[in-house]
Design goal:
heterotrimer; A mainly alpha (about 550); B mainly alpha (about 775); C mainly alpha (about 120); A: about 550 residues; mainly alpha; 3-stranded antiparallel β-sheet; two-stranded antiparallel sheet; about 70% helix; B: about 775 residues; 3-stranded mixed β-sheet; two-stranded antiparallel ribbon; globular
Chain lengths: ~550, ~775, ~120
């Protein structure tokens, strides 16, 4: 039990921070209230530090993913936190500035930051999940706060609409993967992921297939989780929700649930394992054929639908939403490719490639969204109140280079990064996806991936050219001005610098992802130690597995 | 400056021991193999040397973003470069303590790519730095000079304070970072990154005055010509990787060892031609970057950039990258039968050609540019004639005095509103405030001319000449270089005698047509910056002498030029040890020729080249100083008609540009027209189709996104159902085909759902007694 | 604890389910799930839609309990407790959201919220 707690220190730190933030955010003193963000930042940093220093000890097939995922969540979470400045309670604070009395009941600041931290905590838990119950709770903890964040992010009807769509469709997705989990449990008699994996693959070794019930369970739960990563067929909500939510929250949606979804997908698919070949289990390094077909179809449809629909959009946030769909499709390619042969590197390990891509995508998407978040439309010749709106239409970025060169540069760098232009981080992220898929023999998939990247160029170059090359003022009657929250622009600049610098020096990051993607086949030892009375302390063997086994109570 | 008397006293000793010393250098440390010693450790701190300038670049970028209107970017750059220089000295101390060995400082992992299990199927190129004495030598003058020149530029660029100032120092710092990567990288990939990086910075800085068409054209020319060289380099790097399976120097040198042994025995036929091709390809790269025949044409035009840039990038550091490449990869050059010969002849012909062009130019900055090309030729000869030491040594001494010459020219240009024509300036030394510039120019000139015994340039040039005559195969090159030495002395002092002494006279340059920054659009420069003091209206115009920053830098460089003598005046002096203790030292073992030219080649050259230099100066004195009464004319003008059309040809740079234009640019242009037509019909057609298909797909898919919540739910549920159906169908088909192989469910109680895994799974049953018991109980 | 259960199992306690029951439970659970899904897709009232998702959750819960009984361990039952908790949290969220939405448009019709599209 101590070992479980030892791995949860980052989440515990975040939880303590959350409690603190909830109290602090209600203070009548303006200065104290403003402490929410710094306290959250400190909490995230502490959590990240704890995550980086705790020992690796999870009883799953991906033992090293937890650490990587938690540090990743903390790192990108920090950038996202910078974007969040001023999202909650802006009108209320403005009113207080004009001399109105502060009403704690009307304030949403405390909840907003608390939900932010809760969701981040859910993401961290997802990365370290070792049990289906654990995974379910972590996924729900990631999602539930985001529903509220979306609905509360602005006071417009659009946010409400986005919130309601997100919540209801999300609940449907959750029900699906919950039902899938139930079936998996039914097929294996256990919810511990290591046991599930062992039982399923053991059976596959005996019978040649993973069994219909386990398969149905896996397929249902995967399809449910597809909601989190916005993959076909669960992608319909994406554009509407991304457009309706405030830009900072959209950036959050583009990273946190997606990340959690991919952690869950890798853990679930890992239960079936990548050991199938033409002669059944153990004769190759592919997924079970049914799962392969499923993920293959989803990946191809997802990237194509995302890229194709993005072409017609005029809203920056919708373009980015569809691009986010497409990127999920790209990453699924890595899941299909699997961990490759033993001792594989980043170039041949698809899981490591996915983990690395999550990092690159997180940084680049924060950068692009920060440009939209750092600008606002102010209605000319009206009162200050209620005259502020989000920047959304791509035309509103026109000539940005002349007015806010740093934001234009961020947009250019991050959009080119998302496109995957060579010296930038995005290229470094995409390359292992290509090579791992090639290594797994998925030639057709690679060709489709390449074609899709070419289609994507059309709309990314639009994002580059409009702020950078097209001159003149936006044709809207409103003035597009920077928000009074410099940290939003700073987040973008930091992201852009990372995209360039890490593009040149991605090797170190890549080696972390490479380690995180280490896939351990569930072995006899794992099962045997479950029953061993003597806990051992090696990394590869979960010492307390015996306590968590299905029969030990 | 330790005084002439001391110098002369040492001179005797030097001359006497020369015959021995040249041989001693080879025998003092007998070297085998590639000349690479053991590995030692240095603190990782020194890995920061390249990154501090990068930080400076970022900070200057921040300044640009924050619209800083002060000299802050210059202060940042100078500070950071000084820190980098300090670290370099520390690194030098470490290297000095371990002569002949090398260290690898690992900064971080960069490229690590594997496509198979075997070692050969991987490409590793880390951001690691290779530190040996050659690295230390180069980094010492790169960071040192960069610091000084940044200080100089802080004053020189002051009229442009604002965005342009930040931009300048950003590119400047980025250049130092790239150069450091080039020099310090422990693998060819990092070298290539640095190589492209310095090329980019050079492009950016040549085109700094981007509103001036000639600057833009020059930048483009530099870029295009360098691409040709880069093609050679990249092919060479790839071939090296194919041949040696690695890009890391240590690994390459280790694997080249067997070839080196063959080469030493003269068994060229046993060395694969692909291995022999590598150095030749690298040479193309080196010739492009270092402006050698036939790729030298970009360097004189590159003088369109601000003068500090010309001094740092196009005289002292970047253009020596080619020399560095040859010196660094010297073990590979030794395994090729012809590579060094090509290097030597390329260098010698360039030296001569550039010197002849330099003689006929009137623009003093251009003369300096051609002298740079010519001196670079010397350096390549120094390597090509297998003397090894002379090349890098000349790089080192040349860096100081040539930077100084450029900076002095820059001061003239800055003070006289862009005037650079030596016919319109005269007797500057007599004008108030120009004393330091004149002294600096004089010191630079005697170094470049190679005045015997009191200049560092003399010793390093002399080593090259001596090495050339010592190698029996290279005697013709020696003669070419000797002639060039005379020409060099002449055109150098032509500038000095015309511009700095003689009757005082000046014509201010026309700012609008000047070569430098004064042509820059003043509209966005600071109005209050004192521009009214010069430039607008020639009647009230006064030249403004250089300020403290320029003078300080010139004084420091003067001192350094003299101080450099200490490093070179002995044949096994500090500088030579620095070279021979590195991978370039591999050439020493091959240097066993002692061909006499009546006397010992080195000793004889000390005398002969000294005489030639003084003779050149004397000619310049007679033609351009004695009895000259006006700025525009001299006695030389009366001699010009006697030479027929040759001076005009030389003045027009032997029509090389026109020749290239006719030979390459025209045919390529025609070809591009043809390709453009093909492109329009075929490729655009394809692309249009390619663009149309996704749009059509999008238009069909878009109605699905109708915004209605339960329509979305329906589509999602439908999609899930469809996918589930596909899976179920697949499973059923699979069951029919492999029904025999799989164990059918035996548990009747479950019905159609085979959902009792524990019951049908013997392994699970055996491992799980309780569950097995439970299953029994269920039944 | 372990030994206790072992003994109990050996002595035939707890009483095993009658044959065939698991199948029946699963059918009911699947039916509940599908009914919930169909309801979710066809109904336009937000509260009913939410109730349908609850139905889907409880369908999963039902099958979890059935499996738990089948495997004779308590994992599934534990799971169900957590599921109930999460469902409660979701219910709170849903009702709050519905109230918020109703205040805006005085209607619970989901189709009224279709401004964002394309």
């Amino acid at each position: 039990m101590n070992n479980v707690i030892a791995q949860l220190w980052p989440e515990i730190a975040l939880f303590v921070t959350t409690c603190l933030v909830m109290v602090v955010g209600l203070s009548k003193d303006r200065g104290t209230r403003k402490l929410c963000a710094p306290i959250s930042a400190i909490g995230i940093i502490v959590a990240g530090y704890l995550a980086a220093t705790t020992s690796v000890d999870t009883a799953t097939t991906l033992p090293f993913m937890a650490k990587y995922g938690k540090v990743l969540a903390a790192g990108v979470g920090l950038l996202l936190l910078m974007l969040m400045a001023g999202t909650a309670d802006r009108q209320l604070e403005d009113a207080v500035d004009r001399g109105e009395k502060f009403e704690p009941l009307r304030s949403t600041r405390a909840e907003f930051y608390a939900f932010f931290l809760f969701s981040l905590m859910g993401l961290m838990l997802c990365a370290g999940a070792s049990d289906l119950i654990f995974l379910f709770l972590a996924l729900e903890l990631t999602s539930l706060p985001t529903y509220v964040m979306v609905a509360l992010s602005t006071r417009r009807d659009r946010s409400m609409e986005a919130g309601v769509k997100y919540f209801f469709l999300g609940a449907m997705g959750a029900a699906m993967f919950l039902f899938g989990f139930a079936l998996i449990y039914g097929a294996t008699g256990s919810t511990a992921l290591a046991d599930v994996a062992y039982t399923i693959q053991n059976r596959a070794a005996g019978t040649g297939s993973i069994g219909p019930l386990a398969l149905t369970g896996l397929v249902l739960s995967l399809l449910g989780v597809m909601f989190k990563i916005a993959a076909v067929p669960m992608h319909f909500y994406t554009a509407d929700v991304y457009q309706g939510a405030a830009s900072s929250v959209t950036a959050f949606l583009a990273f946190v649930p997606k990340c959690a979804g991919f952690f869950a997908i890798m853990l679930l698919v890992g239960c079936a394992g990548w050991a199938f070949g033409p002669d059944g289990y153990g004769s190759g390094t592919a997924l079970p054929p049914e799962l392969r077909i499923l993920l293959w179809t989803i990946a191809v449809l997802t990237m194509t639908v995302g890229n194709v629909l993005a072409l017609l959009q005029t809203s920056v946030k919708r373009i980015l939403a569809y691009s986010s769909i497409a990127h999920s499709g790209y990453m699924l390619v890595g899941v299909i490719a699997g961990p490759g042969p033993a001792e594989s590197t980043l170039a041949s390990n698809g899981l490591a490639a996915v983990l690395f891509y999550l990092l690159t995508y997180g940084v680049m998407s924060v950068g692009t969204f920060s440009v939209v978040a750092a600008l606002e439309r102010r209605r000319r010749a009206t009162a200050a109140d209620a005259a502020i709106d989000e920047v959304d239409h791509i035309d509103e970025l026109r000539g940005l280079w002349k007015r806010q060169p740093h934001l234009a540069a961020v947009m250019v760098i991050c959009a080119l990064g998302l496109l995957g232009l060579p010296p930038l981080l995005g290229f470094l992220g995409k390359l292992p996806l290509f090579t791992s898929a090639l290594g797994a023999g998925e030639i057709v998939l690679v060709v489709i991936l390449g074609l899709n990247s070419a289609i994507a160029a059309a709309y990314y170059l639009r994002l580059v050219s409009v702020p950078f090359l097209e001159s003149g003022e936006p044709s809207t009657p409103d003035a597009v001005v920077p928000t009074p929250f410099p940290s939003r622009a700073l987040a973008g600049v930091v992201a852009a610098v990372l995209v360039v610098v890490a593009g040149l020096a991605g090797g170190t990051l890549g080696s972390h992802a490479e380690r995180a993607g280490t896939f351990r086949f569930p072995t006899k030892t794992m099962e045997a130690t479950r029953h061993a009375s003597q806990p051992t302390s090696t990394v590869s063997v979960p010492p307390d597995a015996a306590e968590r086994g299905p029969n030990a109570r | 400056m330790s005084g002439l008397a001391g110098q002369l006293a040492i001179m005797h000793e030097t001359l006497g021991s020369l015959a021995l010393a040249a041989g001693d250098a080879a025998h003092a440390q007998p070297r085998f193999g590639t000349g690479v010693g053991a590995k030692f450790d240095v603190p990782r701190l020194f890995g920061l040397i390249p990154f501090i300038p990068l930080l400076a670049c970022a900070l200057c970028g921040l300044c640009a973003a924050m619209k800083v209107k002060t000299k802050l970017p210059a202060a940042i750059t100078v500070g950071c470069l000084l820190a980098s220089f300090g670290l370099t000295i520390g690194l030098y101390a470490q290297v000095h303590a371990n002569p002949g060995d090398f260290a690898i400082i690992h900064a971080f992992e960069w490229i690590n790519f594997q496509w198979g299990q075997s070692e050969a199927q991987s490409l590793t190129a880390n951001f690691s730095f290779y530190a040996d004495s050659l690295t230390a030598l180069w980094m010492l003058f790169v960071t040192g000079l960069a610091t000084l020149i940044a200080l100089y530029a802080s004053e020189y660029m002051s009229h442009d304070v604002g965005q342009g100032y930040c931009r300048f120092f950003m590119a400047f710092s980025l250049f130092v970072f790239s150069m450091a990567c080039l020099v310090m990288g422990d693998n060819l990939a990092l070298l290539f990154l640095g190589w492209e990086g310095v090329g980019l910075c050079s492009y950016l800085l040549i085109g700094y005055f981007y509103k001036k068409p000639s600057a833009v054209a020059a930048a483009k020319k530099a870029f295009v010509v360098n691409r040709i060289g880069d093609l050679g380099l990249s092919l060479g790097v790839m071939l090296a990787f194919v041949q040696f399976g690695s890009l890391e120097y240590a690994e390459i040198f280790r694997k080249a060892e067997p070839f080196l042994a063959l080469a030493r025995d003269g068994q060229w036929q046993d060395i694969p031609w692909t291995v022999q091709l590598i150095p030749i390809l690298l040479t193309i790269g080196a010739f492009g970057k270092s402006a050698q025949l036939p790729l030298y044409v970009w360097l004189p035009d590159a003088m369109e950039g601000p003068t500090p840039v010309s001094a740092l990038i196009h005289a002292a550091t970047m253009v020596t990258a080619g020399v560095y490449l040859v010196a660094r990869m010297f073990p590979l050059f030794l395994v090729s039968e012809h590579a060094l010969t090509i290097v030597a002849w390329g260098g010698a012909l360039t030296a001569l050609l550039a010197a002849t062009i330099g003689m006929a130019q009137f623009d003093i900055k251009r003369i300096m540019a051609y002298s740079t090309v010519s001196q670079l030729g010397y350096m390549f000869c120094g390597l090509g004639v297998m003397g090894v030491m002379g090349g890098p040594a000349h790089v080192f001494t040349h860096a100081f005095f040539k930077a100084m010459l450029f900076l002095a020219c820059g001061a003239v240009m800055h003070g006289f509103a862009g005037q650079l024509d030596l016919r319109k300036l005269s007797g500057l030394g007599k004008m108030p405030g120009w004393r330091i510039v004149t002294v600096a120019m004089f010191v630079g000139c005697i170094n470049l001319a190679g005045v015997p015994f009191i200049t560092a340039g003399f010793y390093s040039k002399d080593t090259i000449l001596g090495d050339a005559f010592a190698n029996p195969a290279m005697v013709p090159i020696g003669w070419i270089l000797l002639i060039t030495a005379g020409l060099t002395a002449y055109y150098t002092f032509r500038v000095f005698f015309r511009v700095f002494v003689g009757p005082a006279y000046y014509e201010p340059g026309d700012e609008l047509h000047a070569h430098d920054d004064h042509s820059h659009d003043h509209a966005h420069a600071n109005k209050d910056h004192g521009h009214d003091s010069h430039g607008h209206g020639h009647s009230a115009w006064q030249p403004h002498p250089p300020g403290w920053a320029i003078n300080t830098v010139l004084i420091l460089l003067t001192i350094l030029s003299f101080a450099a003598i200490v490093t070179v005046f002995k044949a096994d002096g500090w500088l030579y040890r620095m070279v021979t203790n590195s991978s370039a030292g591999a050439g020493i073992a091959a240097d066993h020729h002692h061909k006499f030219f009546g006397f010992d080649a080195h000793a004889a050259m000390k005398v002969v080249s000294g005489i030639v230099a003084i003779a050149g100066i004397a000619v310049a004195f007679v033609l351009h100083y004695s009895g000259r009464t006006s700025a525009a004319t001299s006695k030389a003008d009366s001699l010009v008609p006697m030479l027929g059309p040759i001076p005009r040809w030389a003045q027009n740079k032997w029509y090389v540009d026109e020749f290239y234009h006719f030979l390459f640019v025209r045919p390529l242009w025609l070809l591009s027209v043809v390709f453009a037509a093909i492109d329009k019909v075929l490729v655009d057609g394809l692309v249009n189709v390619f663009g149309w298909v996704p749009k059509a797909l999008a238009k069909t898919a878009r109605p699905l996104q109708n915004g209605v919540l339960h329509d979305y739910a329906l589509r999602m549920a439908g999609g899930v159902a469809l996918l589930l159906l596909i899976i179920v169908l697949m499973v059923n088909r699979g069951d029919r085909t492999s029904a025999a192989a799989s164990i059918p469910p035996t548990d009747n109680s479950i019905g159609t759902l085979p959902a009792a895994p524990a019951a049908v799974d013997p392994i699970a049953v055996s491992l799980d007694p309780i569950r097995a018991k439970a299953q029994e109980a269920v039944r | 604890m372990n030994t206790l259960f072992c003994t109990l199992a050996q002595s035939g306690w707890p009483e095993p389910m009658p044959t065939g029951t698991l199948f029946h439970y699963l059918v009911i659970s699947a039916a509940m799930f599908v009914i919930g899904l169909i309801g979710f897709v066809t109904r336009r009232n937000l509260i009913i839609m939410f109730l349908c998702t609850e139905l889907m959750f409880q369908a999963a819960g039902l099958s979890l309990i059935a499996f738990s009984r089948f495997h004779l361990n308590h994992t599934g039952e534990t799971f169900v407790i957590f599921v109930l908790t999460v469902a409660a949290a979701e219910a709170a969220l849903a009702l709050a959201l519905v109230v918020l939405l109703f205040r805006r448009k005085e209607s619970l019709d989901a189709e009224r919220w279709a401004e964002l599209r394309g």
